[in-house]
Amino acid sequence: MKQRAGVEAGMGSVRLQEQELAASASDVPRPAAGPAPGAARRDPARRRVDGGWRTQHSFPTYAALDLGTNNCRLLIARPEPREPTPCGFKIIDSFSRIVRLGEGLSQSGQLSEAAIERTLEALAVCKDKMQARNVTRARLIATEACRAAENGEAFVGRVRDMLGLDLEIVDRETEAQLAAAGCASLADTSAESVLLFDIGGGSSEVIWLERPTAMNNALLVERGLGERIPLWVSLKLGVVSLAEKFGGIEVTDQVFESMVTYVTTELREFAAGAAGLGRCGRFHLLGTSGTVTTIAGIYLNLARYDRRRVDGLWMSDEDVGRTVERLRKMSYHERVANGCIGPERADLVLAGCAILEAIRRAFPAERVRIADRGLREGILLQMMQADRARSWTGPR
Length: 396
Description:
Number of domains: 2
Distance between the termini: 38 Å
Number of strands: 12
Structural class: alpha/beta
CATH class of the largest domain: Alpha Beta
CATH superfamily of the largest domain: Exopolyphosphatase. Domain 2
CATH architecture of the largest domain: 2-Layer Sandwich
Helix content: 40-55%
Radius of gyration: 20 Å
Number of helices: 16
């Protein structure tokens, strides 16, 4: 569990992170002769300029890649200053593939060669897309699987050597910050506080988000969310690690409750710390993950997943509970056949439901808002805002 004071004194606050990003923005090559100042430094927010990538583009194009324990996901976007969009930018390309990079990690402590090969193939697709879209600025992050694996750094080096992509293994605080930055705009602005959570493959972030006081959500995302986050935790568990520990194909009621109990124990310290924090009648949960978007798709009876209908959806606590029960009653083969689940996630979704159930029991709320946005959107917002701040202040 991390409180505000601990965040400031420890790994650095959200504001510090954004200041670092703003500083790195000044190192982005400009269309001028000769090497850019600071070009010798490695900047995780700056894309490689060798290998055929364009060094100039009249319209800046940004890329954000999130390589997690289960998924490899890419967003490519451009700012929309004249035509505001819900996210503040226009998505021009995207990619998502389940690679299960962390498969077997909880037992071996290593990324397996099969998982590495799957991930390299997905990353090659991402590189092609970034080149095709003339990306001028990118940040490529890796999370829990690479953090936890003994060969995580070696894998990052292999990606750099083979593909010319600079993956940045981020710490838990940065992952929580980016999830909050990507989702904060969906919080009810009249709620005194919101519990935001991101259920991942190998870790799950739980964040207490307070209501803005003097500025609106957009400005707070831009200037930093630190003042709105008094408490957060990154649990060392996710859908992959939990399913590997308890099983995910045939999940009995007893196994499901065992998973919920396990997560509840891990969540206990954070829940105790949040007990004294203020909340009101409009308090709600805000979830971002494949688990909650799947639940939303099942609730809407979608034949196939549709992000436009899911992102921003409000569900009552009763609706969530009934939908989880529907999922628990499905056989493994029924989950495989469902268009919102499929064979790649059929053995993971109930582990995600168990994590969600533990969160719902610890933090009862009448409403849950579903977000099909998160880390990648947070990365894009931070890069664009850092560049915008640089353009306001001028060259240093």
